[in-house]
Specification:
By secondary structure, the protein is of the alpha+beta class. It has helices at residues 12-24, 64-83, 104-117, 129-135, 137-140, 162-176, 219-226, 298-303, 309-319, 322-331, 339-352, 407-422, 428-434; strands at 2-8, 30-33, 92-94, 97-102, 125-127, 149-154, 158-160, 181-183, 188-194, 197-202, 205-214, 233-246, 252-255, 267-271, 274-281, 285-287, 362-376, 381-382, 387-391, 394-398.
């Protein structure tokens, strides 16, 4: 079969692009293939992430520029939901959220953060102990009265089931374009260019396409290197799991992120799939697989690495970084029975909820995913945010946090590139009217 566009990957990145192509372009002949039996079975699944729609208002490791970009992309999702006929609370729910600073250093950091972003987020409020006790009493109860504390509160918070949102995107795409095909249980084994077309060899036969988008998470870099691209990039895979308790909080409580780490500190969240619990995490472990818990993906992970002096220098610099080393050392014991729960309670959970007890906390070994951190061997460090490579007729998307929140923003960039390459039409005015709020 020959297609105009093939999308490899049925998570939130691939399905949001499928929807955008179907709704705002005149490209008809499109195929999405997914290696598993349904959409969003890995990192986009609700059990694998924090279910947060990131705006950049409580993410203290963001620059102002990244916060502005993230806010815009998240507003695309809100507008999609508002325009949807299936206003299902199982997909998205509003909830309050805050970033909590504990101690002199963190309070000072929050004061500086607030001054930098208050013009971008005019609804963001500084709150002290008295007001915080009314909003999240369990954050204050049992806390040392002399401990300095400050929070930045946003009422514009949402938790999202990105797996269900992926299915919604695919459903709408099929309604928009009857020619769209979706094939599950279809795994790409090899990819190459031949006679001006891209050839994908899968477990269910060969596919040809004028354009291919790899929206396959950690595997996107694997395929890029199959074509000889991005030899200066490698992946440091961060695996993350979650603890849980009965529900102690009314909304999301993030911690201040120290240093320049590109992923969030431990935070506490409600769960859109279970209103009776609070989840804590994600924990941080170094994973040597491209898919969490799938040891068979270890050889593929090794193939994403350039085992050379530049890679080794980059790894040394990253692992010797004070903040990264501290996080890895602290998290190394969190999955160990008995001791791990005690250490997680002491060093993480009780900082958010002081009266939380050992018996309140439980580990859920069936939750968590992979957050790929991109190592730029030219900079000898981890890059901040998403990584994207656009080459002649190819796009490779690698989307660490806040990749799910930025899915329609990423799709916009890809649609512009795809339609220009194929000589097709993109109705940018329709996009802005429906998703941009214009």
């Amino acid at each position: 079969m020959e297609y105009d566009v093939v999308i490899v990957g049925g998570g939130i990145t691939g399905t949001s692009l499928l929807y955008s192509l179907s709704r705002f372009t005149d490209i008809k002949n499109i195929l999405l293939i997914e290696k598993y039996s349904d959409f969003a079975m890995l990192n986009s699944n609700a059990r694998s992430n924090s279910q947060t729609l990131h705006f950049g208002d409580v993410e203290t490791n963001y620059t102002v520029e990244k916060a502005i970009k993230t806010k815009k992309a998240s507003e695309y999702i809100l507008n999609y939901i508002r325009n949807s006929t299936e206003k299902d609370e199982k997909i998205i729910q509003k909830c309050q959220k805050m970033v909590l600073g504990v101690g002199d250093e963190e309070v000072k950091m929050l004061e500086e953060t607030y001054q930098n972003i208050k013009s971008v987020f005019p609804g963001l409020k500084k709150i002290g102990k008295e007001e915080l006790k009314k909003i999240e009493p369990n954050v204050i109860n049992g806390r040392n009265p002399g401990e300095k504390i400050l929070a930045l509160l946003s009422d514009n918070g949402y938790m999202v089931n990105f797996g269900m949102l992926s299915s919604s995107f695919a459903k709408k795409a099929r309604l928009n374009n009857k020619n769209i095909e979706i094939k599950f249980d279809t795994e790409v084994k090899k990819a190459k260019i031949e006679n001006g077309l891209y050839k994908l060899e899968t477990n269910k036969g060969n596919i040809s396409s004028k354009f291919v988008v790899f929206a396959a998470g950690t595997y996107s870099l694997y395929f890029a290197k199959m074509f000889g691209y991005d030899q200066n990039l490698s992946i440091l895979n961060i695996g993350g799991g979650f603890y849980y308790s009965k529900r102690f909080l009314n909304g999301k409580v993030y911690r201040v992120q120290h240093g320049h780490i590109p992923f969030a500190a431990i935070h506490a969240d409600p769960d859109i799939t279970n209103p009776d619990i609070t989840r804590y995490g994600p924990t941080v472990t170094l994973s040597l697989t491209l898919e969490r818990g799938h040891i068979k993906t270890f050889p593929d992970y090794i193939r994403t690495f350039n085992i050379d002096i530049s890679t080794l220098i980059s790894l040394k610099r990253i692992l010797l970084d004070r903040d990264i080393r501290r996080i890895i050392q602290n998290n190394a014991v969190y999955s160990i029975p008995v001791i791990g729960k005690y250490q997680f309670l002491k060093k993480e959970a009780k900082i958010i909820i002081p009266k939380l007890s050992y018996g309140d906390l439980h580990i859920n070994n069936n939750t968590g995913g992979i957050r790929p951190q991109i190592i730029d061997e030219n900079k000898k460090f981890i890059t901040m945010g998403e990584a994207k490579l656009q080459k002649e007729g190819l796009i490779f998307n690698i989307t660490p946090s806040p990749g799910a929140s930025s899915c329609l923003g990423n799709a916009l960039e890809d649609v512009i590139y795809i339609t220009k390459y194929l000589g097709k039409n993109f109705d940018i005015n329709k996009f802005n009217k429906e998703l941009g709020g214009g």
